[in-house]
Amino acid sequence: MTKSCGILLLFLLLSSCANSQEASPRLVGGPCEGCEAVLEYGDRELNAVDTLPEYESAADKLKLTGTIYEPDGKTPAEGVIIYINHTNAEGIYPTRGDEEDWAKRHGYLRGWAKTGKDGKFTFYTQVPAEYPSRNTPAHIHPYILEPNGKYYWLETYFFEGDELLSNDHVSSNPRGGTSGVVELREQKGMYVINRDFILGKNVPGY
Prior knowledge:
disordered N terminus, 28% strand, alpha/beta, single chain, six-stranded mixed β-sheet, seven-stranded mixed β-sheet
């Protein structure tokens, strides 16, 4: 091996290590129960669209979509993973009994999408219900994992018109830059939610 080839190889190895370190997962935005679930996609090949279990059989189908932007609020963010989880139509997080890690709590109604160059993501799932105790409105939990390794929770989705919704569920500085209270719009036999996010917006310590 020539001296120049050796130097080039060393440079490539150092660059690879640096990139690996930059991509090491690190929680930002303060304490977060369940944020690590965004890392649990395993060897799945993620893309911009994910269909959650039981979508086809769901009585109230839901299409949840949006665009994720860079911190400037204008440039679409590529390579961002967004994770969601929610209850089923009975208000529970259903499990099959073989779940591991955060799936034990989040159940199997969860999914991951990874944005392309246009920053868009889509989930096909079902409209969740409130907990059987009726002490919390129906909701969907979203989390973000950026290509640089930062991960954090975003403002929870709640639904306009939910009788359990109160001012306690509305933030004046929503994480992700958009209100978590959304409208369920009927469209072609399903409900549709469109909500965009801005990376790091209103995330403490970002």
